[in-house]
């Protein structure tokens, strides 16, 4: 392995070695000393995040392994936040996992391997490497969903996730095979070059490949009408695993969409642009309208994810209309900002649910949050911040996320339909605000029905507090994160 190749994959190499080390070390750790595996996992995540930060600081686009692997600013930012999301998920999982015999090496090693798949997808510049990362992430998540083998609901969720995930993988693989047949290459940059130069063996095959690729990406994002697995998996999976499904993999799906559609299929953007717009509008409608009827908080957050991904797709498709590199980068930067802000809010929401859960009690119904303000005012405030951020209420980061997406959408103000699309997005956001604010109402204005004491480890309290503070600080001062996303996109597109 050359020096360039080694430094390009340094975060992935550290993560792979750490996952294997945790898996082996756990064989020699007793049940009462599982905190060692936990500490090793968090140390590994911190080391990987440091590697990503150093590579981001280099501000260069590098290709390794014959162009199959790319390390660029967009990849490093997404990897950094994926590490953060995985670390927070493990910290939040403590109480829940200890009370349900899940505090074992499998939880830690599979979480690290899931992150490895996510990071591989983010930096993949080759169709085969995208599929390799996708399968590594998916297989690890299937096992995590079924980790509670004696829980029928978890087994059912794992089976649904496996079957529908395999269908989505098949869509992507079939689309990739047709794309290879049409262009004769697996390299994403070369695919774009050959399409632009009209060196395509079969134009209809290229269009059909685009359809299958967009459908596969829609499955992985959880966008309607490919969303049927989302609420069932969120509901049936153990809550820490549902959190993992809802956070870092969304960043990977965004990166894959960017690599395939923007970097690879930009010459046929007229075909997939309309498909993304339809996916976005259907997701906004289905996600927000269906979430209103939910009484289970995990299912509500599942349908909420569908609507949130619809908003993100609006920014993705608006990048095609950008006339200049700056406006295009701003649109994709807005989509990237949105998926990061969504992940931060989701982490906080699931974190409070995990805090309230205890052995024999799953805090997953909206009614389980009744009177939380009277019992633990600070945690009720953190949950309220998460709900307000997902709803897009100022001054949380979610409000600014929706604002920059709408700004990107309206950048081409000469197009009247774009204005109507923005109006539709705002109206469905108002529908979404209803069920988010309903959770806040239950916490603050209803009497508690469960007065059982609950507590958490110090690191969980610190992480949950930091998560809540980040939601409001990044909402008041969003320019730093937005500048990071926009500059990363400018350098990535320029590279």
Jot down its keywords:
mainly alpha, 495 residues, single chain, two-stranded antiparallel ribbon
How does this model look, in words?
With 495 residues, this protein is mainly α. The chain has one domain (3-494). Helices cover 77% and strands 1% of the residues. It is built from 22 helices and two strands. The chain has helices at residues 3-8, 10-25, 35-58, 73-92, 94-98, 105-123, 127-145, 152-183, 188-196, 203-221, 229-236, 239-246, 248-264, 269-291, 297-321, 325-356, 372-375, 377-391, 397-409, 416-445, 458-476, 479-494, and strands at residues 62-64, 69-71. The chain has a two-stranded antiparallel ribbon. Helix 3 (35-58) packs parallel to helix 6 (105-123). The mean pLDDT is 89.
Give the fraction of residues assigned to helices.
over 70%
The overall strand count is 2
Strand order of the largest sheet: 1-2
Question: How do the SSEs run, as a string of H and E?
Answer: HHHEEHHHHHHHHHHHHHHHHHHH
Q: Report Rg.
A: 21 Å
Secondary-structure class: mainly alpha
Distance between the termini: 24 Å
The percent range for strand residues is: under 5%
Runs in which pLDDT lies below 50 for 5 or more consecutive residues are none
Number of domains in the coordinates? 1
Shape: globular
Q: Quote the average pLDDT.
A: 89
How many separate helices? Answer: 22
Biggest beta sheet attributes: 2 strands, antiparallel
